[in-house]
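dude i think i finally got it to work??
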Amino acid sequence: MAAAFVLTPKEYGHRILLLQRSGDDAYAPGSWQILYGHIEAGERAEAALVRELLEETGLRPLSLWTMNETMIFYEQIKGVMALVPLFVVFVQPGDVKLDRDEHQAFRWVLPEQAEGYFTWPVHRRGLALLKELFIANEPPALMRIIIH
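look at this
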């Protein structure tokens, strides 16, 4: 699994895309989250996120960045701890085409609004890092990932 904050560039006012899990989701029904994607056999984490971004939202990335961090949380359905690499995907703001099997709603929110949507502390910690590295500052070029 991999995860990403989906963010519009500064010239569009830095909005974060939040996705609300479907009401019948087995793990976290109705919760607001960032983009998650399962990594298929032989697939790299960044490729999985680009694929999932298109499948779940219809959006295409402008650029992809590593946050050089992981999120750790317990997956109670599987009974395992998940260690999930965290990324940032910049996109142009646009019409989101939700995969209704996965999500029931979306919102573009300002960074200062996002924290109030998150159920899990791991998302709030990631948001703080996003603000520090990508909103208050220009990220170092070495954090950029070339999309193939």
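Strands lie at 2-7, 16-21, 32-33, 35-37, 63-75, 80-90, 103-109, 144-145.
im so relieved honestly
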